[in-house]
Amino acid sequence: MSSQPNHQTSISSLLHDRLHIPPAETIVEKESAEKDTCQSQRKRKEPVLHEVDGSSSGAAKKQDHNAKERLRRMRLHASYLTLGTLLPDHSSSSSKKKWSAPSIIDNVITYIPKLQNEVGELTLRKQKLVELERRGPSIRAISVLELGESGYEAVVQICLKKENEDEFSNLLHVMEVQGLSVLSASTSQVCREQRVVCYNFHVKAYHNFADQRSFLGIPNFLNVISNFPFLIIGLIGLILCFYPEDYFSFSLRGEKIGWTCFYIGVAAVAFGSSYYHLHPNDATLLWDRLPMTIAFTSIMAIFVIERIDEHKGTYSIAPLLLAGLVSILYWRFFDDLRPYALVQFVPCIVIPLMAILLPPMYTHSTYWLWAAGFYLLAKVEEAADKPIYSWTHHIISGHSLKHLCAAMVPVFLTLMLAKRTVQTERISLYKTWKKGSEEERFEHSYSNVAVEETR
Question: Biased composition, Basic and acidic residues: where in the chain (predicted)?
């Protein structure tokens, strides 16, 4: 019986030392002292309150009510801020700005269904893992090595006890479901007696974008809404292609077909890319890449029509569009991006070279180079998605800026079509620049000749 007080004393001292909580006696003494102080203050104020008239008493009550209301609002605001710290966007934000109460409530309402879905998925995973654990321990070790600071690529090694021949394909399926693209894979047997096999995967998290914030119930809001300019410029281009007064002044028969396909692809990018960013995965990525291949292949056909041969370029529109479609389907069914990479990057290299070296039929050919420059900038911003999101203090990500820069490509091409005229003498940009540099050098050398005085 004598050990119980000592035990309580040790617990109170431990709380006092480790958690900085004062003993109960101190708290009681402090509360009684505060109570005595409040009573003494009331006694001092009572005579004054009795002497004042009714208007002063009403003013005091109003002042007391305002003080209580101010305190209530401060406590409510503190509760909102505490609630905001539980949101993932608030915890990951590096900025010091304060969120308003309505925005916190909107984010909480949006976040709760996501959290419920995540909890449900984690519960199912837990059940599966428990079932696997009951069967017997199969996984020996898992290691992950991130490549670079972006967090997009990693080398994953999974060592487990081989029980059937489908484990490798099952792991590939799990990674695909998680939004990971497997760039390469290999296996190695560690222990033959225990049948332990190590699977090595070089994966890339293509669908893991930096800005995943939701707004107005739209997931990945900025990545979705930044595709809207493609729809605007695509519709404007289609209208001007068939404008009654021939606004773009096409002089070749196949040009209108090529530019129509191009603007259809641009407008379709708005729908395909928005659909993908609403639910980022490999299945929806198909509809993001398909409109872009229509735009890329149409541009190649347009260049052939304008700079090489009209008939060959016109006949190449359908085969080039078909090649783009085949490259997308080949990637989807065989998980091989090489054909699609050819369709996407060959025009990016060939078109600027053709714009510089081949003589154009129209003026304002430098707009092709402006368009190529904006597309190159868009690819750089896509690669720097997370760093840009961090540099801008989580205002906008590199992927959203990529959409805006890529939309400048059809903007410059539309301006080119509106301003250009047919050239009487076809001279390439390279020869024009070379001729201009020679004339400048000649003028410079001519100005340096000493003038002799005539006698």
Answer: 27-37
Query: What fold, for 221-440?
Result: Rhopdopsin 7-helix transmembrane proteins (1.20.1070)
CB contact at 8 A, 372 and 351: yes
188 backbone dihedrals φ, ψ, rounded to 5°: -150, 135
Please report, in tens digits, the pLDDT of each residue of the chain (455 residues total).
Answer: 444 444 444 544 544 454 444 554 554 455 555 556 555 555 444 444 444 455 667 788 888 888 888 888 888 888 878 877 777 765 544 444 566 778 888 888 888 888 888 888 888 878 877 776 665 555 556 666 665 555 567 777 777 776 666 677 777 777 766 666 677 777 777 666 666 777 787 777 677 788 888 888 899 999 999 999 999 999 999 999 988 767 887 888 889 999 999 999 999 999 999 999 998 888 888 999 999 999 999 999 998 998 888 889 899 999 999 999 999 999 888 878 888 888 888 888 888 898 899 888 888 889 999 999 999 999 999 888 889 998 998 899 999 999 999 999 999 999 999 999 888 877 878 888 877 766 666 555 555 545 455 54
103-204: CATH topology is Alpha-Beta Plaits (3.30.70)
> Known binding site: residues?
277
Q: CA-to-CA distance for 322 and 403, rounded, in angstroms? A: 25
Q: How far apart are CA 261 and CA 92, in angstroms?
A: 43
Please classify residue 278 by burial: count the beta carbons closer than 10 Å to its beta carbon, then call 0-12 exposed, 13-18 middle and 19+ buried: middle
**Which position has the token pair 């708290």?**
27
Q: Take residue 424 and report the two structure tokens written for it.
A: 């009487």
Cα distances (angstroms) measured from residue 345 to each of 339, 342, 394, 407: 10, 5, 30, 17
Query: For residues 398-421, b (16+ Cβ closer than 10 Å) or e, as one string?
Result: bbbbbbbbbbbbbbbbbebbeebe
Q: How far apart are the first and last CA of the chain?
A: 133
Cα distances from 447 to residues 437, 441, 444, in angstroms, run 15, 10, 5
- Asked if residues 211 and 400 have their Cβ atoms less than 8 Å apart, the reply is yes
Q: Are 200 and 156 in contact (CB under 8 A)?
A: yes
Amino acid 129 reads L
CA 91 from chain centre, in angstroms, equals 18
Residue 188: helix, strand or coil by DSSP?
Answer: strand
Q: Which two tokens stand for residue 325?
A: 């479609």
pTM over 0.70: no
Q: Residue 351 pairs with which residues in a beta bridge?
A: none
| Separation between Cα atoms, residue 401 and residue 379, nearest integer Å | 10
Tokens of 93: 């934000």
Question: Where is the binding site for Zn(2+), in residues?
Answer: 277
